[in-house]
Amino acid sequence: MKETVWDKYWKKQQEIKLENITRTLALLKDFEDYHLNAVFLDLFLPTLSFAKRNADNNKIIADFVLAYGFRLPFSDETFDIVWNEGVNEHFEGEQRQKIFDEMARVCVTGGKMIVIAPNALNLPYRITKKILELRNQWIYGFEKTYTIFEQKRRMRNAGITPSKSSGAQIIISLLTFLELIHSEASPKKKENVKTLEQTTSRSKIKRLLEVIMKIDEHLEVVFGTLLGKDIGIKGGKRC
Question: What InterPro entries does this protein's entry cite (predicted)?
Answer without folding.
Answer: Methyltransf_11, SAM-dependent_MTases_sf
